Structures are given as structure tokens and as C-alpha cells.
Amino acid sequence: MKKLALLAGAAAAMIAAAMPATANDRYATRPPVVVSPDLAAPWVIQLGRKPGVLVRRQAQRSPFPEQRRVRRQEQQPDRMQTAAVAPMYTRAEMQRKMDPKYLPQQVAYDGPGKPGSIVIDSRNKFLYLIEAGGQARRYGVGVGKEGFGWTGTHNISRKAVWPDWRPPAEMIVRERAKGRILPAHMPGGPENPLGARALYLGDTLYRIHGTNAPWTIGTNASSGCIRMRNEDVVDLFERVKVGTQVMVL
To answer: How confident is the model at residue 97 (pLDDT cuts 50, 70, 90)?
Structure first.
């Protein structure tokens, strides 16, 4: 009996080995373990090196060249940002309060110009948008500092929202002599000296524009342009169109 039992057990083992894999064991033969080349390569190379010589893994490079260029630019400091720049305004000037008389007002008007045109009184720092019936909408402005004032008549040739700024070469040289480094180009935005809107005058370099220095309204502070508070130039921008006559007195 014992001999028969041993024979039966051996037969059962042989049958089990010949049967296909069960559901609990998906593969009859396990697949080999595969290691990513990024991880395996340094160690495979290491096998061919002399003892004590290390192989350092190199950082994976982006397959997109433009991404590599952006990363390099992010790592390099902006020369314009690192240059020593002297402040344009003193702390006292920046804390100066604007006289309320320079806020927009509806006033009686009997000066030069026709309804729909703009007249700028440089001496008193007012801009008038002339209306019918002897009325005008008056705004406070900042005008050219000593040596930069001008008079004349031009038409609005272009309008721009959040204009970019390209300071003239002579301004760049002039400010560099004062220790201030101006960029060759500055995109539009809250930090841009031209502010939220710009009305370009003829083919000149002069503009009626906003400002990031509202405390200069009512003063002689510009290089010839007419500057307004951002909220005021936005209001004027919506009221006038290209071709509007502008008279600077």
C-alpha cells in the first residue's frame, strides 16, 4: 500500500507540472526585469572602467531647443536690472499731493479752438477738451521742464492702449550722464512711463499720455510730452478720435 501511495503522489506531481499556469500565476515563465537605460547606462559603463574611476550621470537634455534657450535666459541675470540706476524722483517729490484743482472739471470756456478740439495751456498746466456752448472739460497735466517746453498745433495721428516706450537716443545719453540707465525698449504696463494710454501728435515724438508718476501733474516735469493721470488719459482717450486737432500754447 505504501508503495502504491508513493507512485500515486509522483504521478500527481507530474500531471501538475504539465498543466498550464493558473489564473493566480499569469505567466508560466516570469519575464525578465527591465531597467530604464537612464538608470542602467552609468553602471554598465562603469563595468568597463578601472576600479576607483566614477562615471557621473549627465542631466537629461530637453528634446526641445527652444525650452533649453528659455532655461538659459532665466539663469542669466538681466543687465538692465542689475545696472545701478539713480532714482528719477526724490522721496519728497513722490509724497507730494496733487492740488485738487487739477482734477477733471466741467468749466466755462471762451479761449481759442473749436468744439471737439484740444487746447493745452502749458503755463497753467491745464488741458481743455472744448465742447459746444462755451463749455470745456478741463484736466490737469504735467508739461515740459525748463528747456523742453514747446508750442504748436498738430492732429492726433495714432492712439495706443498701454503703449510701449522707446526712449530717444539723446534721452538715453542725457540720463546716463545723470547715472540713470534707460532701456532701449520697455513694453507697456503699470511701470511704463507712458502709462495706460497715448495720443500721438502728428509725426513728432510728442504725445499726450498717462504716467506712472501722478505726483508730477501740475508741474514742469517731462521732456516735452503732455502727461496726465492714468484715469484721466483713459477718459480723454475715449472722448477723442484720430484726426482731432491739438493746440499747445
So the answer is: confident
pLDDT tens readout for residues 132-175: 999 999 999 999 988 888 999 999 999 999 998 887 778 878 87
Which sequence positions are flagged as catalytic?
209, 225
**Using CA atoms, how far apart are residues 207 and 120, in angstroms rounded to an integer?**
12
Q: Burial, 216: exposed, middle or buried (Cβ in 10 Å; 0-12, 13-18, 19+)?
A: buried
Please state, in angstroms and as integers, the Cα–Cα distance from residue 146 to each residue in 122, 123, 179, 223, 224, following that order: 12, 12, 20, 9, 9
First to last CA, the chain: 130
Q: Does the domain at residues 101-248 carry the CATH identifier 2.40.440.10? A: yes
- In the DSSP assignment, the letter for residue 120 is E
* Domain boundaries defined on the chain: 101-248
